[in-house]
Structures are given as C-alpha cells and as structure tokens.
Amino acid sequence: MATPRTKRDYCWTCGGDQQHRRLNKKEEDWLKERLGRSGVGEFWLCVNVLDPDTGKQCRNLRTGFNKKPFAEPIKAPVIE
Ligand SMILES: [Zn+2]
C-alpha cells in the first residue's frame, strides 16, 4: 500500500483540521538544513489557504503524531 501524500489533520496555527501534504524534495532539503537533521520524512505541511486573493497557504509544519513539534511554529518558505 502506497504512503498517502495528503491527509486531514489538526493545524494548531490555523485551528481545526486542515489538509496537509508531504514535503517535496526542495522543502525537505530546506528543513534538513533548518533543523540540522538528516531525515525529515515524518513532517506534513498545512496547505490551508489563508488569503484567497493571493492563494497564500499556511505551510505550518507538523509530524504525523505531534501537532506542535516545535515551541514556535515553523512554516516552510515557498521555494522556487
Ligand atoms: Zn495551518
């Protein structure tokens, strides 16, 4: 069975269940650098749209088990 790429789960910065997706390669590389870790496979990114005009997404990070893995929220930047 393939690992799902999206799931609904709680986002503590949005409040409530929101759609999340897996990180892409560039985001994983950024997060590895950010956290100084070699593996970040457990993280999910909130894709809730905060601003319908610009399409800006929340992008807050959580893990599958922990809705608040960091003391302060870490939001992935949009990487071109
Ligand atoms: Zn969110």
Short description:
With 80 residues, the protein is α+β, with helices and mostly antiparallel strands. The chain is built from 1 helix and 6 strands, in the order ββαββββ.
Notable characteristics:
80 residues; binds zinc ion; four-stranded antiparallel β-sheet; alpha+beta
Write the layout of secondary structure elements.
Layout (H helix, E strand, L loop, with lengths): L5 E5 L6 E6 L2 H11 L7 E4 L2 E3 L4 E2 L3 E3 L17
Antiparallel strand pairs: 1-2, 2-3, 3-6, 4-5
Bound molecules: zinc ion (ZN).
Description:
The protein has 80 residues and is an alpha+beta fold. The protein has one domain. It has one helix and six strands. A hairpin with a 6-residue loop joins strand 1 and strand 2. The longest helix has 11 residues. Bound molecules: zinc ion (ZN). The site of zinc ion has 8 residues, from loops.
The major pleated sheet works out as: 4 strands, antiparallel
How many domains, in number, for the residues? 1
- Counting DSSP E segments of at least 2 residues, the number of strands comes to 6
* Ends distance: 31 Å
H-E string: EEHEEEE
Trace the largest sheet across and list its strands.
Answer: 1-2-3-6
Radius of gyration in whole Å, from Cα?
Answer: 12 Å
Strand pairing plus helix content: what structural class? alpha+beta
Point out poorly predicted stretches: none
Bound molecules: zinc ion
Residue share in helices?
10-25%
Overall pLDDT score? 95
Shape: globular
Q: DSSP helix count? A: 1
